Amino acid sequence: MIEKKEPSIWEGFKAFLMRGNVVDLAVAVVIGAAFTNIVSSVVKGVINPLVGAIGTKNLDSYHSCLKAPCSGSGDTATGITIMWGSVLGAALTFVITAAVVYFLMVLPMSKYLARQEARRKAKEGTQEVLEVSELEVLKEIRDALVAQRGSGHNEP
User: Fold this and answer.
1) Which residues pair with 64 in a beta bridge?
2) What distance in Å separates the CA atoms of residue 137 and residue 131, rounded to the nearest whole number?
């Protein structure tokens, strides 16, 4: 009786790493990290100055004091301060990131895939028409051959 050898842990790990999903995920994380820097630069260089036209250039400085005295910053702060400017900045960064990903990556890829699918369907439709017309031609040839045989057998 032949026994099947169980793959070693190393072989299993190696197969796991070589799967496309893991490599694609690693590439996505690296690209995402680089993309985060770009979006952060856009927020700091474009959005914050636009907001600065109304108030301050740094959204982190927007806050509300719930319990006095609200003075100092970081670990030396006293009282209870709600830093809603930081949340607004993070929300803007998220919206900008989502918009860039959608308009520059998802939307063009969706349109490309839709065109590919339409081409594939058109090609299948053409092949189907060709197959039907070929079948009809073959039937006509068969009918013509049968008619010739039939007329040839009837003659003495």
Assistant:
1) 82
2) 10
> What tokens does 32 get?
């995402």
For residue 36, the one-letter residue type is: T
Q: What tokens does 8 get?
A: 């070693």
CA–CA gap between residue 57 and residue 46 (Å, rounded): 10
**Cα angle vertex 53, ends 48, 55, to 5°?**
80
Confidence band for 156, pLDDT divided at 50, 70 and 90? very low
pTM exceeds cut of 0.70: no
Please report, in angstroms and rounded to a whole number, the separation of the first and last CA atoms in the chain.
73
Q: What share of the chain is helix, strand, coil (3-state, %, to 5)?
A: 75, 10, 15
